[in-house]
Amino acid sequence: MRIGIIGAGNIGATLAKHFRRLQHTVLIANSRGPETLAELAKETGATPVAIREAANGVDLLVIAIPMKSVPELPQDLLANLPPKSPIIDTGNYYPLRDGRIPDLDRGLAESAWTSRHLRRPVIKAMNNIVSDSLLKKALPRGAKKRIALPVAGENAQSKKTVMDLLDAVGFDSLDAGSLSESWRFQPGTPAYCPDPTIKQLPKLLERAKRDKAPASRDTAAKLMAKLPPDFPPQELVRVSRLSAGLDLLNPRSWFALLHLLSVAIRSR
Ligand SMILES: NC(=O)c1ccc[n+]([C@@H]2O[C@H](COP(=O)([O-])OP(=O)(O)OC[C@H]3O[C@@H](n4cnc5c(N)ncnc54)[C@H](OP(=O)(O)O)[C@@H]3O)[C@@H](O)[C@H]2O)c1
């Protein structure tokens, strides 16, 4: 496939690596221009391009930028994107990072908001896995601990394309319904970043509480802001698993929680 990625940070760069490993052609763009992506190009074999070029004639487009940047995307970004090419939105809303977005504060699903801005349907996927897990925890089909990711959207064919791609990359996936249901794996929900298996994921989605998620998201974001950038990402995953009710008997999870709290308190 010919895949465009807008955003070359944690998620965009990780996906570029995976897609290139699978021999796909990858066009990748950031906000500062292709000349700033030479190193990533060398490392991955992805081709750095200008933003519009990333969506030009590709079979799949991934949007991996902060929510606050979505309205800054060019109005004619999708002019040359074939109508059948799916768009994956990996975005999450963090008011602490993105500022307040009233429609999202009123409960509109985050990817529905992105879809409105793009004036095209999108598929929500890969927003609820930390980039470290996305990079390092891909496993072959059938592996016992293979992570399962929810995929939401309206178009069945687009969802299938995305789910097949996830399988090739190394993840199980679950059809999580339409975009209006995708709040179930937004920040602050049990399915947000605990690296569940396909057996665990449906229960986590069921247990999501729409009215409680924003407060949990903001508490987590405040805590995260106190951590140094090199805080071990897999300890964050262990804490996410604990708060999702997984691994409650695993001492390593509790150590991770104590470590996180002690670092956060010390950084006050
Ligand atoms: N980090 C994670 O573990 C993770 C996991 C799942 C989902 N997500 C979500 O995925 C999205 C991306 O996260 P990230 O961690 O990859 O972000 P990041 O590391 O901060 O990278 C953001 C990328 O977006 C680019 N960008 C920003 N504004 C742009 C614009 N107007 N046009 C084109 N490119 C633009 C940036 O380019 P410049 O550097 O040139 O500005 C940068 O390459 C966020 O919504 C995040 O919440 C993140």
Bound molecules: NADP nicotinamide-adenine-dinucleotide phosphate
Number of domains: 2
Termini separation comes to 48 Å
In the CATH scheme, the class of the largest domain would be Alpha Beta
CATH fold naming of the largest domain: Rossmann fold
Mean pLDDT: 97
The helix count comes to: 12
Share in β-strands: 5-15%
Order of SSEs? EHEHEHEEHHHEHEHEHHHH
Indicate the radius of gyration in whole angstroms.
18 Å
Helical residues, percent: 25-40%
List the strand order in the largest sheet.
Answer: 3-2-1-4-5-6-7-8
The CATH superfamily label of the largest domain reads NAD(P)-binding Rossmann-like Domain
Biggest sheet architecture: 8 strands, mixed
CATH architecture of the largest domain: 3-Layer(aba) Sandwich
What is the approximate shape?
globular
The low-confidence runs, each spanning 5 or more residues with pLDDT under 50, are none
> How many β-strand runs?
8
Assembly type of the chains comes to single chain
